[in-house]
């Protein structure tokens, strides 16, 4: 008998044969059977590694398979559907916040017809494998000798008794190498497992990630740049790959886009997809692919593959099947960065409740509370680095790549009254729904109407998109912070049911997401854009406020006066204002094209400002400006005279009373 516990052996031992795919849902519900089960929510289809239960016990989404009977004759069976060389089993307890159910020891049997079963042996005796002592830690057992069969059964022998009430419950993954089946005449129907793109499909630790990024830069030095936005608590640099036809420079009128992955270090698929994306864009640009060439020339793209490198290194050492659900999720300091950004939602909603004059309220560029910026604030160094990055680059659109579900969530992520969940839309709800739909509808797994739910919520009912706060309350999210503190719109993409898919699954995951990653980037060119200039000097005006009628969320122009306002097709009245200038309005029509509508503005200085500018240069006033000055003086004189007359009339009334 060989027993392998979490952390006792290197990951290379696991990689000899990959998982069949209970966790990733590659193994379908129809391939799972059991001797018995307590109820539908604890059926064999729930006996998958790392599956998560709902909040309440007793619903259809419980956290494992549980047998109806408490005896040694219970089993969970997996049909591999073809001859397979089985090499091991990974076991986990039941996911539940109310119950404690684990299997301590178990046996394994094999069959080619599900009728005659052969036990796994340890020499001359039937092997007994060691299971779990807690609910979450996956425990791996490798067989003394591998066995070729089609079916495998896990047969619990001892379990946590809890007096006499302990149930036989488990979650599992099976390791095995599928073999060629000479009897399969429908080989063409086999699900694809490869990609047509020749990319580096494997999991990369920090050093390997840095090496790959360097190789991409060396292959495409004219369109790439690697830079760091700061360091993790453990001292690892947060590297960004920039892709642009002018790396290192913001070009007038060219929008800035970012992808961020690895906020949770154990949710690794986003990291690998961004590494694949930078390789793909480099190679396709060199080949002359017009779609990629257009993206590179018209967009400044920033890819941050690992926001939490410390957490990823921790998860990486455990391996794809042994990291569990939370190992590596948090920063080195134990901070969940998904809740670590400044809570500007509460600042906004408190102001709305307290301020009686709505004209004094702001709806964008909310300042960061002073307490949050202090050195004593519980803010991760990685979070501070990303905020500084956001403040220095005028991002327009972003996506935050996560794992563990299949859904796209859009702001707001935080509920207004701290409810566990409640639909909480932004003023840009319709455009955020469009952004989420663009990714979800082009993702090959999300858009599959026959797919089963990952864990405990059926997002197919919502077309695989959801308002973040309507899913669960997330105060301090990066999405909400980005929307309220900067011009940037951002969504969260949950890429896969499996947070840490096996390396063998990375090619097909790239195929599932390639089109989504590209088409989402292209949305940065929707809406309107332009440059706001001084009418006299033609200089760009920074910090001008761009207001779209009927959307209570403004944006601002950046250093050179350029701006981008993401909008759905339609006709909009746009008003621009800037300190020292007269307001200007015009109607801008957004078409269905993949190109933005150009809406430039030239603002006229308020006469006093123009007078100071002209007289300071020793110039003479034009007739038009002299007329405006006379009109302004007359207007001020009328206002002043009216106020004086009102005060005199009031004084006269008081004198009469006396």
Tell me the layout of helices and strands.
Elements: E1 32-34, E2 65-66, E3 76-92, E4 103-111, E5 118-119, E6 121-122, E7 125-126, E8 129-130, E9 139-159, E10 169-178, H1 206-219, E11 224-231, E12 237-243, E13 256-261, H2 269-287, H3 290-298, E14 300-304, H4 309-318, H5 344-354, H6 370-373, H7 381-392, E15 395-402, E16 405-410, H8 429-442, E17 465-467, H9 468-471, H10 478-485, E18 489-496, H11 506-522, E19 528-534, E20 545-548, E21 555-556, E22 562-565, E23 570-577, E24 584-590, E25 597-598, E26 601-603, H12 607-616, H13 623-657
Parallel strand pairs: 13-14, 13-15, 15-18, 16-17, 19-25, 19-26
Antiparallel strand pairs: 1-3, 2-10, 3-9, 3-10, 4-5, 4-8, 4-9, 6-7, 11-12, 12-14, 16-18, 19-22, 20-21, 20-23, 23-24
Written account of the structure:
It contains 13 helices and 26 strands. Strands 1, 2, 3, 4, 5, 8, 9 and 10 form an eight-stranded antiparallel beta sheet that branches. An eight-stranded mixed beta sheet has the order 11-12-14-13-15-18-16-17, with helices on both faces. Strands 19, 22, 25 and 26 form a four-stranded mixed beta sheet that branches. α8 (429-442) packs antiparallel against α11. It is an alpha+beta fold. The radius of gyration is 31 Å and the shape is elongated. The chain has helices at 206-219, 269-287, 290-298, 309-318, 344-354, 370-373, 381-392, 429-442, 468-471, 478-485, 506-522, 607-616, 623-657; strands spanning 32-34, 65-66, 76-92, 103-111, 118-119, 121-122, 125-126, 129-130, 139-159, 169-178, 224-231, 237-243, 256-261, 300-304, 395-402, 405-410, 465-467, 489-496, 528-534, 545-548, 555-556, 562-565, 570-577, 584-590, 597-598, 601-603.
